[in-house]
Inverse folding.
């Protein structure tokens, strides 16, 4: 599809409307006098529907819609189905604990449980590394690729040293998306982010469902002729998600992402009460179960029947461009832009919270100018993420690359939370050593330069999701052993006390 004037008009009108409504709502809201609470937790005032909307759209971005549909198979739905378990664990276990300990960041819980600020700072650094090196550039690339494939915006590729030939339009669109997303995070704080997420989410989910319906109608709801491996939910050992991984690393990935990840949990921590937060989380779980799996795999499967295998995550954009009426394609482009911006600005705001609260106030200045400092943190992360877009532009699968690489950080982070919540009398130094070991151990097992097409490694010969489970268990055991043998402390089981006090 070639870009038409009506598409541009609809696109700009909807984008401007979302921005205007967000500004209007935030301007009339009651603000907190506590700078941290206001900027990072919206003054503790988010209603359940904003929590649900923000959690949904912070996660549902181009790496899901573009990356998962780009795989053109049903198997990727497991990421979303398993997410429901992670949301329930957040709702009934972690959120009461965060509120009980009065946390601004998830990592603040670690400082209070280990009684040590350094473990908090280390985990924050790992979160920041994942955000700047993995999530932010992946979001920018995925959104740019969608727009290019949907509207036929490709230009002659240029050679990028170290990466090869890349379409320069990817860089241009990534820059625009980054600047727009940063504006929300820098000038509006979490309140503006959450409100824009919710309004954008209604638009995106509605249009994505419509795309799914039109896609099915385009093949007369007939899946005949599509290979069984594209339709099955039982993954073979050499598939993207082998069935056995659902019972090993998949569960731990979901617990990490939904229950400890600042970008997600920050929304639920910004409600006036635990019950209000829980209502929002359960609503987000319902959306995740009933709506999201269909919209992230069915269009991709339909595109396989219509076009065959399409490389470089271009399937979704091409399908949408072909099946939607001209004016609706402009609206859908606005919805995709909203998804890009909301996820991007959510990560920037969460990253600023981690840097300001966990690192800067501890080691540099206890009373910084929060908005000014957050501005510079956001600028630095935007620049770094733009420089890394070429890496993701050269990968075969966006979603598989993101999940594989994030294992370097996700399981070490989760291990610190598991030990910290379940046990007391654990020396923070034991956990710090274990976390650093876990990063290096996963890197060694994964051997990133030798990952095979079936996402196993030549060194270990196991799928990366299995490697995550192995790494997590190893780190927990190592931390407890170091605590006992090296630091002469006996860890004591404390889970019942923690959750009882929180309840």
């Amino acid at each position: 599809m070639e870009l038409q004037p009506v598409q541009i008009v609809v696109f700009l009108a909807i984008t401007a409307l979302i921005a205007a409504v967000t500004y209007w709502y935030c301007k009339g809201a009651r603000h907190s006098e506590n700078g941290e609470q206001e900027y990072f937790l919206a003054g503790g005032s988010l209603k359940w529907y904003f929590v649900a909307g923000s959690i949904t759209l912070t996660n549902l971005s181009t790496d899901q819609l573009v990356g998962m549909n780009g795989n053109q198979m049903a198997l990727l739905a497991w990421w979303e189905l398993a997410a429901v378990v992670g949301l329930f664990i957040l709702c009934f276990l972690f959120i009461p604990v965060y509120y009980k300990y009065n946390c601004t960041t998830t990592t603040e819980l670690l400082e209070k449980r280990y009684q040590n600020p350094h473990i908090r700072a280390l985990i924050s650094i790992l979160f920041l590394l994942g955000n700047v090196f993995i999530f932010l550039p992946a979001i920018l690339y995925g959104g740019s690729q969608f727009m290019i494939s949907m509207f036929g915006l490709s230009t002659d590729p240029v050679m990028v040293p170290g990466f090869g030939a890349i379409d320069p339009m990817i860089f241009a669109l990534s820059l625009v998306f980054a600047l727009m997303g940063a504006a929300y995070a820098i000038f509006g704080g979490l309140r503006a982010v959450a409100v824009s997420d919710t309004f954008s989410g209604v638009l995106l989910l509605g249009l994505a469902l419509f795309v799914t319906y039109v896609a099915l109608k385009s093949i007369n709801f007939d899946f005949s002729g599509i290979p069984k491996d594209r339709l099955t939910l039982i993954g073979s050992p050499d598939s993207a998600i082998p069935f056995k991984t659902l019972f090993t690393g998949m569960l731990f990935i979901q617990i990490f992402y939904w229950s400890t990840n600042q970008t997600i949990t920050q929304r639920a921590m910004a409600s006036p009460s635990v019950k209000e937060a829980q209502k929002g989380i359960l609503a987000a779980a319902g959306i995740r179960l009933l709506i999201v799996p269909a919209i992230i795999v069915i269009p991709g499967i339909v595109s396989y029947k219509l076009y065959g295998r399409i490389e470089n995550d271009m399937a979704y954009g091409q399908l949408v461009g072909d099946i939607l009426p001209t004016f609706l394609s402009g609206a859908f482009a606005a919805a995709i832009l909203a998804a890009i911006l909301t996820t991007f600005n959510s990560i920037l705001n969460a990253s600023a919270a981690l840097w300001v609260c966990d690192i800067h106030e501890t080691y540099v200045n206890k009373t910084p100018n929060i908005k000014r400092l957050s501005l510079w943190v956001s600028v630095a992360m935007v620049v770094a993420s733009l420089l890394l877009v070429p890496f993701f532009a050269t990968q075969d699968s966006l979603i598989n690359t993101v999940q594989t690489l994030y294992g370097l950080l996700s399981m070490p982070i989760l291990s610190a939370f598991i030990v910290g919540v379940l046990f007391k009398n654990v020396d923070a130094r034991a956990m710090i050593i274990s976390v650093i070991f876990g990063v290096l151990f996963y890197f060694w097992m994964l051997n990133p330069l030798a990952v095979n097409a079936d996402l196993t490694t030549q060194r270990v010969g196991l799928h990366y999701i299995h490697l995550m489970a192995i790494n997590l268990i190893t780190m927990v055991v190592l931390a407890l052993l170091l605590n006992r043998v090296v630091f002469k402390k006996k860890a004591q089981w404390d889970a019942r006390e923690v959750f009882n006090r929180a309840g």
